[in-house]
Amino acid sequence: MPLKGQPFRREDYVYVNTQFSELLKDAVRFFHGTHVLPLPPEEPFMGAGVYAIYCIAKKGLYKTYGEKINRTSYDVPIYVGKAVPAGWRQNRVVDEIAGNVLYNRLRQHAESIRNARGLSLSDFVCRFAILEGETANMIAALEAAIIAEHTPLWNSVIDGFGNHDPGKKRVTGKRPQWDCLHPGRPWAMRMTGEEFPLAELRRRVTDYLMGVQCRR
Fold first, then answer.
1. Considering only CA atoms, which of 101, 174, 110 is closest in space to residue 139?
2. 0.85 exceeded by the pTM?
Protein backbone atom coordinates (compact mmCIF):
# COMPACT_ATOMS: atom_id res chain seq x y z
CA MET A 1 0.00 0.00 0.00
CA PRO A 2 1.31 3.48 -0.83
CA LEU A 3 2.05 5.69 2.13
CA LYS A 4 -0.26 8.64 2.54
CA GLY A 5 0.94 12.16 3.04
CA GLN A 6 4.22 11.71 1.17
CA PRO A 7 4.69 13.95 -1.88
CA PHE A 8 5.05 12.25 -5.23
CA ARG A 9 8.33 12.98 -6.96
CA ARG A 10 8.53 11.63 -10.50
CA GLU A 11 12.32 11.49 -10.49
CA ASP A 12 12.19 8.86 -7.76
CA TYR A 13 10.57 6.46 -10.26
CA VAL A 14 12.72 7.05 -13.35
CA TYR A 15 15.30 4.34 -13.97
CA VAL A 16 18.37 5.44 -15.95
CA ASN A 17 21.25 3.22 -17.04
CA THR A 18 23.59 4.50 -19.73
CA GLN A 19 25.30 1.11 -19.91
CA PHE A 20 22.18 -0.43 -21.42
CA SER A 21 22.02 2.35 -24.02
CA GLU A 22 25.61 1.69 -25.05
CA LEU A 23 25.00 -2.06 -25.13
CA LEU A 24 22.00 -1.56 -27.40
CA LYS A 25 24.00 0.71 -29.71
CA ASP A 26 26.67 -1.99 -29.90
CA ALA A 27 24.02 -4.59 -30.82
CA VAL A 28 22.70 -2.32 -33.57
CA ARG A 29 26.23 -1.87 -34.94
CA PHE A 30 26.75 -5.63 -34.88
CA PHE A 31 23.46 -6.17 -36.68
CA HIS A 32 24.31 -3.78 -39.50
CA GLY A 33 27.69 -5.44 -39.88
CA THR A 34 26.33 -8.92 -40.55
CA HIS A 35 26.42 -10.34 -44.06
CA VAL A 36 23.39 -10.01 -46.33
CA LEU A 37 22.01 -13.35 -47.51
CA PRO A 38 19.29 -14.55 -49.89
CA LEU A 39 15.74 -14.76 -48.57
CA PRO A 40 15.46 -17.33 -47.16
CA PRO A 41 19.10 -18.22 -46.40
CA GLU A 42 20.25 -21.25 -48.33
CA GLU A 43 21.27 -23.20 -45.22
CA PRO A 44 18.97 -23.72 -42.22
CA PHE A 45 20.38 -22.59 -38.88
CA MET A 46 19.47 -22.69 -35.20
CA GLY A 47 18.59 -19.73 -33.02
CA ALA A 48 16.28 -16.81 -32.32
CA GLY A 49 16.88 -13.14 -32.93
CA VAL A 50 16.19 -10.09 -35.07
CA TYR A 51 16.12 -9.79 -38.85
CA ALA A 52 15.69 -7.25 -41.62
CA ILE A 53 14.45 -7.74 -45.17
CA TYR A 54 15.75 -5.48 -47.94
CA CYS A 55 14.19 -4.82 -51.33
CA ILE A 56 16.49 -4.44 -54.34
CA ALA A 57 13.82 -4.38 -57.08
CA LYS A 58 14.62 -2.33 -60.17
CA LYS A 59 11.15 -2.36 -61.64
CA GLY A 60 7.58 -2.16 -60.45
CA LEU A 61 6.18 -0.39 -57.40
CA TYR A 62 9.40 -0.71 -55.39
CA LYS A 63 11.96 0.08 -58.09
CA THR A 64 13.24 3.08 -56.12
CA TYR A 65 14.83 0.64 -53.67
CA GLY A 66 16.97 -1.05 -56.29
CA GLU A 67 17.64 2.01 -58.44
CA LYS A 68 18.46 4.48 -55.67
CA ILE A 69 17.96 3.64 -51.99
CA ASN A 70 19.74 0.26 -51.85
CA ARG A 71 21.62 0.55 -55.12
CA THR A 72 25.15 0.45 -53.69
CA SER A 73 24.54 -0.90 -50.18
CA TYR A 74 21.76 -2.34 -48.05
CA ASP A 75 20.83 0.80 -46.15
CA VAL A 76 17.04 0.84 -45.70
CA PRO A 77 15.09 -2.33 -44.89
CA ILE A 78 11.55 -2.76 -46.12
CA TYR A 79 10.67 -4.83 -43.04
CA VAL A 80 12.20 -5.60 -39.64
CA GLY A 81 11.02 -8.33 -37.31
CA LYS A 82 11.96 -10.75 -34.56
CA ALA A 83 11.70 -14.46 -33.93
CA VAL A 84 11.53 -15.56 -30.32
CA PRO A 85 11.69 -19.03 -28.76
CA ALA A 86 8.68 -20.77 -27.28
CA GLY A 87 8.00 -19.61 -23.75
CA TRP A 88 10.04 -16.44 -24.22
CA ARG A 89 7.35 -14.21 -22.75
CA GLN A 90 7.09 -16.33 -19.61
CA ASN A 91 10.83 -16.79 -19.05
CA ARG A 92 12.99 -14.20 -20.77
CA VAL A 93 16.31 -15.90 -20.06
CA VAL A 94 16.96 -18.61 -22.61
CA ASP A 95 19.54 -21.17 -21.55
CA GLU A 96 19.52 -23.28 -24.69
CA ILE A 97 19.52 -22.62 -28.41
CA ALA A 98 15.91 -21.96 -29.40
CA GLY A 99 15.44 -24.34 -32.30
CA ASN A 100 15.39 -22.83 -35.77
CA VAL A 101 12.68 -20.23 -35.12
CA LEU A 102 14.57 -17.40 -36.83
CA TYR A 103 15.25 -19.40 -39.98
CA ASN A 104 11.64 -20.59 -40.07
CA ARG A 105 10.35 -17.03 -39.78
CA LEU A 106 12.47 -15.95 -42.73
CA ARG A 107 11.24 -18.94 -44.67
CA GLN A 108 7.63 -17.96 -43.92
CA HIS A 109 8.26 -14.44 -45.17
CA ALA A 110 9.82 -15.82 -48.34
CA GLU A 111 6.68 -17.88 -48.92
CA SER A 112 4.50 -14.79 -48.44
CA ILE A 113 6.48 -12.90 -51.08
CA ARG A 114 6.52 -15.90 -53.39
CA ASN A 115 2.70 -16.10 -53.24
CA ALA A 116 2.16 -12.37 -53.75
CA ARG A 117 1.26 -10.91 -57.11
CA GLY A 118 3.62 -8.26 -58.39
CA LEU A 119 6.58 -9.36 -56.27
CA SER A 120 9.61 -11.46 -57.13
CA LEU A 121 11.47 -13.27 -54.35
CA SER A 122 14.79 -12.59 -56.11
CA ASP A 123 14.24 -8.88 -55.37
CA PHE A 124 14.57 -9.45 -51.62
CA VAL A 125 17.51 -10.28 -49.36
CA CYS A 126 17.96 -10.40 -45.60
CA ARG A 127 20.34 -10.00 -42.70
CA PHE A 128 19.92 -11.06 -39.11
CA ALA A 129 21.53 -11.33 -35.68
CA ILE A 130 21.18 -14.41 -33.49
CA LEU A 131 20.73 -13.64 -29.80
CA GLU A 132 20.95 -16.51 -27.34
CA GLY A 133 21.48 -17.08 -23.63
CA GLU A 134 20.97 -13.93 -21.60
CA THR A 135 21.36 -11.71 -24.68
CA ALA A 136 18.02 -13.09 -25.90
CA ASN A 137 16.51 -10.62 -23.44
CA MET A 138 17.54 -7.90 -25.90
CA ILE A 139 15.58 -9.24 -28.86
CA ALA A 140 12.59 -6.92 -28.47
CA ALA A 141 14.79 -3.90 -27.69
CA LEU A 142 17.02 -4.50 -30.72
CA GLU A 143 14.03 -4.92 -33.02
CA ALA A 144 12.49 -1.68 -31.72
CA ALA A 145 15.78 0.20 -32.12
CA ILE A 146 16.20 -0.83 -35.77
CA ILE A 147 12.57 -0.04 -36.58
CA ALA A 148 12.94 3.40 -34.96
CA GLU A 149 16.14 3.98 -36.94
CA HIS A 150 14.62 3.23 -40.35
CA THR A 151 10.78 3.19 -40.03
CA PRO A 152 10.59 0.39 -42.63
CA LEU A 153 7.76 0.61 -45.16
CA TRP A 154 6.08 -2.68 -44.27
CA ASN A 155 6.30 -1.87 -40.55
CA SER A 156 5.07 1.70 -40.62
CA VAL A 157 3.03 2.46 -43.75
CA ILE A 158 1.72 -0.82 -45.15
CA ASP A 159 0.51 -3.05 -42.34
CA GLY A 160 0.08 -6.81 -42.25
CA PHE A 161 3.14 -8.41 -43.87
CA GLY A 162 4.08 -10.18 -40.66
CA ASN A 163 0.54 -11.40 -39.92
CA HIS A 164 -0.24 -15.08 -39.42
CA ASP A 165 -3.30 -16.98 -40.57
CA PRO A 166 -6.04 -15.79 -38.15
CA GLY A 167 -7.97 -19.05 -38.52
CA LYS A 168 -11.35 -20.01 -39.91
CA LYS A 169 -13.30 -18.10 -37.28
CA ARG A 170 -12.03 -14.77 -38.61
CA VAL A 171 -12.57 -15.17 -42.33
CA THR A 172 -15.07 -12.30 -42.23
CA GLY A 173 -12.41 -9.89 -41.02
CA LYS A 174 -10.69 -7.22 -43.09
CA ARG A 175 -7.89 -8.34 -45.35
CA PRO A 176 -4.54 -6.87 -44.20
CA GLN A 177 -3.31 -3.84 -46.10
CA TRP A 178 -0.28 -5.76 -47.36
CA ASP A 179 -2.53 -8.44 -48.84
CA CYS A 180 -4.75 -5.83 -50.49
CA LEU A 181 -1.65 -4.41 -52.16
CA HIS A 182 -0.08 -7.81 -52.91
CA PRO A 183 -2.87 -10.42 -53.04
CA GLY A 184 -1.96 -14.07 -53.16
CA ARG A 185 -1.50 -15.51 -49.68
CA PRO A 186 -4.11 -18.29 -49.50
CA TRP A 187 -5.33 -17.51 -45.97
CA ALA A 188 -5.73 -13.80 -46.76
CA MET A 189 -7.59 -14.49 -49.99
CA ARG A 190 -10.24 -16.31 -47.96
CA MET A 191 -11.01 -13.21 -45.90
CA THR A 192 -14.24 -11.53 -46.97
CA GLY A 193 -14.18 -8.23 -45.08
CA GLU A 194 -13.92 -4.78 -46.63
CA GLU A 195 -10.66 -4.18 -48.48
CA PHE A 196 -8.45 -1.12 -48.14
CA PRO A 197 -8.49 1.02 -51.34
CA LEU A 198 -5.64 -0.05 -53.60
CA ALA A 199 -5.04 3.46 -54.97
CA GLU A 200 -4.53 4.79 -51.44
CA LEU A 201 -2.04 2.04 -50.60
CA ARG A 202 -0.03 2.71 -53.75
CA ARG A 203 -0.02 6.43 -52.95
CA ARG A 204 1.31 5.70 -49.48
CA VAL A 205 4.17 3.67 -50.95
CA THR A 206 5.06 6.41 -53.43
CA ASP A 207 5.00 9.12 -50.76
CA TYR A 208 7.12 7.03 -48.39
CA LEU A 209 9.79 6.30 -50.98
CA MET A 210 9.92 9.94 -51.97
CA GLY A 211 10.39 10.87 -48.33
CA VAL A 212 13.24 8.38 -47.90
CA GLN A 213 15.04 9.87 -50.91
CA CYS A 214 14.64 13.40 -49.54
CA ARG A 215 16.20 12.38 -46.21
CA ARG A 216 19.28 10.82 -47.84
1. 101
2. yes
